[in-house]
Each structure stands twice: as C-alpha cells, then as structure tokens.
Amino acid sequence: MKKMYSEQELKNILGQNLPESDLIDQKIQEAYTMIRETTPKRKNLHHMRITITAVAAALVLCFIFCTANPALAAQIPIIGRIFQLEEQKVSYPGDYSTKSKPLASPGTEAAAAENQVPEESLYCQTSGGVTFSISESYADSMSLYLAVSLEAEDGFPQTFLDVNEGWDLSYQVLEMDTVATADFGEAAPGRLTFDPALGVESPFIIEGNFLDSATFAGIIRVDLANLAGIDQAGNLQRPDLLPGHFTYGLKISDIYVIKPESAAYTNDPVQLEKISGNWDFSIDVTANDSEVITKEMNLANENGIGIGTVRRSPYEITADLICPEGESAGDYVVVMADARGQKLESRGPIVGTYSVWQRDVSKVTIAVCDEETYMNYKGDFDSLLSKALFQTEVELSR
Amino acid sequence: MRTLVKQAQHRNPEAFIRLMEENRQAMQRVAFGFFRNEEDVADAIQDTILDAWEGIGGLKKPDYFKTWLIRILINNCNKIFNHNKKSCSASELPEIEKEEAGNSYVEFRELLLALPAESRLIFQLYYGEQYTTREISDILHMKESTVKSRLHRGKELLRTQLQDA
C-alpha cells in the first residue's frame, strides 16, 4: 500500500478486469462442458424411455424421409400427428397423443378424423402469409395442450430457421403476442380475459420444431391450475374450480423470434424478426379429470407457512402455498421431491409447477423455502430441504 | 440480458453460458475477496456456474440475475472457506509475479489484503461491483448500517496503515 486512494481510484482498482488465469478458465470450461453434455441427456432421457411401437417407428421413418424430401413432405399431412412428433421433445413432455381429441369445425369432423388437411375453418386460419392450424387438444383441470402447425406460403424467414442454430435443444421456441379468453357460459366466473396489456399473462411461446423451411409443428401449453383473468366487471378473478367444459379463445397477432446476438451485447431493445397477422381461434375444451388427484392438505407451521391444496395430473404437480397474512407469496418457493427423494424439475419455465412425467410420485415430499434460501441452495437439494421452513409428505397414489 | 435470462430459463445452454461469460470477471473479483489462491477461486466459480444452471428456472425476477448469481457465489465461497479453513496470513501468500500479473493486478491484491477480512467483501461489492449499501445488505443478509460501518472502518484502517507507513 503506497498511498491513500480516492473513491474513484478504489472503484478503478477493485473494478478492473483481472488477468486471465489458465486454472480458472479450465474450471469454467469444465462446467460449460458438463452443462452442454447434461442438457441433451436430460432431453434424450425422455426419448430413451419411449416404447417404440411399430407405428411410432414408421412415423419416425416417415418424418426422416419427408424432411429429406420436402416436396413429398408437403403431400403428407402432419395434422393429427403433431402430438406424436413433438410431445417427448418439449420442456413439458407427456403422452398427450394417447389422450387427445382432434379439433374440427362443424362439417369437417370426418376429415379431421382421417387427419386430412382442413380447409380454412375455425381451427385453420391464414393471415400474413402463414396458415396457423390447431389440430389436437388435451386438457385436464391443470393444463391445456394444443397441437399446432404453422405453414408459411413463401417459407419462413431464415432468421426463424436459424434462431436456435447451434443450441443443443430437442425443441425450438417461437414467441407470440396473444390475448386469450375463457368463457364458462353461465357458470362462474363467466368470461375471463387474459391480456398482458391488462397485467395478466396469456400464452406466449410455442415449443416445437421446424419440419422443413415452411412448416413448424409444436405444442402450446396453457396453465389452467393458476388461471387468473379479468372478468367482465374488470376485476381479477382466480377461479378455484374450473367447469369441466368451457370455450378457450386464443387471438394471436404476432409470431416472432428473438435474435440472441442482439440481446446479448446491447441495452437497446431486442431486434425481432416478426410475422404479423390475425389468427383468432375459439376452442371447445373439455377437461378430463379422470386422472387428476386432488388432496386438501391445509397444513401450516406455527409461523403460518405451509401448503393447502395439492393437485397432480399424469404430467405435473402443484401445491398451493400458505403464507402469513400480509406477506407476499412471492417471498416463498415450493419445492418437491419424488418417492425416491429426487428433486422434481420445473415444467419448462414455469415456477411452482413440477413435472411428474415418468417419475414415481406415489409419495411426494413438499417443502416451502424462502426465496433467498431457494436461490442460494437450489443446486444442493438436500441442503435446501434441510433449510426448509416447512416440509411434509403426501401420498398421491389412487 | 433479460432475454438471455429467459432463454436460459428455457434450458438453453448457450444463452446461459453467454450470461456466465458476461459476469465472469465480476465472479472472479468477488471470489478473490474471499480467497488468496486461484484454486479456491476456480472451484467457487465452477460450483456457482453449475448451481446457477440448476437453479435458474426458479429465478422469478430476471432483472435481478446478477445479484442472484453473486449471492450463489458468496454462498459457495463460504462453503469452501469453512470446509478448508484456509485463512493464510499475508506472510503465507505466494509471491505475486509482478511481471506476469501487471502492476494494477498487484495493486488489486494488495488493496484487498490491506483491508480487514470483514470489510474485504463489502469493499469489493461496493467499489468493484458498484452495488449500493442497500443492495449489499440484501446480498449479505446484514443491516445496511453494518455495511456502512464496515465500509467506514475499512477506509479508516487503510488511512491508518498509510500513516503508520
């Protein structure tokens, strides 16, 4: 120490870029390698567990053949096969194809049943040079899954096709601007609107894959367990129970991709490649709750922290948080482990909804942590559980 | 950065790695606030990268990504420090190779060494990473008044050392 430093000198010295270190660089690169190698294995785990039937194998061969022969691919409709193609690749995997129903406008049911390409209809609309089709759906009271395809008359822009280039994912992501509605008819809470402009989320991503330069097949997931929308009086409503049948409206105005290189190194608004249009769908939804288990736990510790209702479908599980009055639920995180004590993974980017697909969840450990503890110990699940504010086990087998 | 965080939350490894690269220098500087040797700094950063990858799906506020990351790093530094119980005094430090490191790096290390241990991390977060005392109090789970008093004490000690010299 040779001198007294000014405030600016302290900032300059302590904020400087440090010299390169081979050892530190080596350790960092090892971590990156683990992450890159782990990510495809995580996705491939779903592929490895698929029981390949002769029909599924034929579909795979057909898909490979058609990808190499786009002209032929154009002649073989993907309608009716999208769940089969994509359901194991997306971040919310499941076997929706075994439970889904085809969507058909009145008068086109026969064509839909035969997986024929539908003409312009309630579920197939063309705008902005893109034909957007919703061909299958599956719903329970926790989620709605829609099988969708997008076909661009003149092919998709190269930026769409390249956006996930080099990323080792089994799916690609298209983003969309939407406004959604749920109309329960005469049943409460009536009609709800989900509009980001009103501060309420609506579906914003499609996970799937480009089958060729002009065709994208994917799955939209709509969270029903945490449905919160604006009613006709302008109030925010969170229905505790959904009627088994309702009409889901999905209006899409823009479909776009984000250029990662522009987002990474600039504070300017992200540059978007966008396809604008007006696709306005009205989907009849019947929630199949035959496999949904609901348990009313309503347990809390002496500090008023605990869990209320636990819901489990064949694909996901949620637990309602109980926190002290006046406190924000956002200050707490619910975490879960399966019957073997292994952490359950988030259902894609959704916090608080965990995937149970192909996991033993006959018994589930559910814990509540404060947000800071969760962030600090997320990588060490055993330590996280040991620091939980509340913990319990629930049996969920029928 | 917000978009990269969202993409990383979608389990995009390349977006996540870009985030790490953007914050790599900050992680190095903070970790050197704990440790004198590169091995521990390297281990802490590696653990932090892997923990962050595991936990990024649970980050509710993407705008606070860097603060969240630094919290994980500090936690890992504490774990390694407690595990190793390494707290070498200045006399145990390897000689800094001035020709290799450069005088500014030497000054970085000497400045940190001159500070009391309780002030070192706070100095790094305040001056090096430009966090406010309020943010530092959140990161380190201590009262803002404690952060301020340790900053003040660190500066007083630096001044005293200069006078003694």
Annotate the secondary structure layout.
The complex is a heterodimer of chains A (398) and B (165).
Chain A: H1 7-14, H2 22-49, H3 54-68, H4 70-73, H5 82-86, E1 101-102, H6 109-113, E2 124-127, E3 130-139, E4 143-152, H7 158-162, E5 172-183, E6 191-194, E7 205-212, E8 215-223, E9 229-230, E10 236-237, E11 245-258, H8 260-264, E12 272-286, E13 293-300, E14 306-312, E15 316-322, E16 332-337, E17 346-347, E18 350-355, E19 363-370, H9 371-377, H10 381-386, E20 390-395
Antiparallel strand pairs in A: 1-3, 2-3, 3-4, 4-8, 5-6, 5-7, 5-11, 7-8, 9-10, 11-12, 13-14, 14-15, 15-18, 16-19, 17-18, 19-20
Chain B: H1 2-9, H2 13-22, H3 24-32, H4 38-55, H5 65-84, H6 98-101, H7 103-114, H8 117-128, H9 133-140, H10 144-164
Helix content of chain B: over 70%
Taken as a percent bin, the fraction of beta residues of chain B is under 5%
| Intertermini distance of chain B | 45 Å
Number of DSSP E strands of chain B: 0
Q: Can you give the helix content of chain A as a percent range?
A: 10-25%
What's the overall geometry of chain B?
globular
Q: Could you name the CATH class of the largest domain in chain B? A: Mainly Alpha
CA-based shape of chain A: globular
| Oligomerization category of the chains in this entry | heterodimer
Query: Using only CA atoms, what is the Rg of chain A?
Result: 24 Å
Largest interface: A-B, 57 and 69 residues
Structural class of chain B: mainly alpha
The CATH topology of the largest domain in chain B corresponds to Rna Polymerase Sigma Factor, Chain: A
Summed up, the domain count of chain B is: 2
DSSP, total strands of chain A: 20
Number of domains of chain A: 2
How big is the Rg of chain B? 17 Å
What is the helix/strand order of chain B? Answer: HHHHHHHHHH
Low-confidence stretches of chain B: 86-101
Q: Give the distance, in angstroms, between the N- and C-terminal Cα atoms of chain A.
A: 71 Å
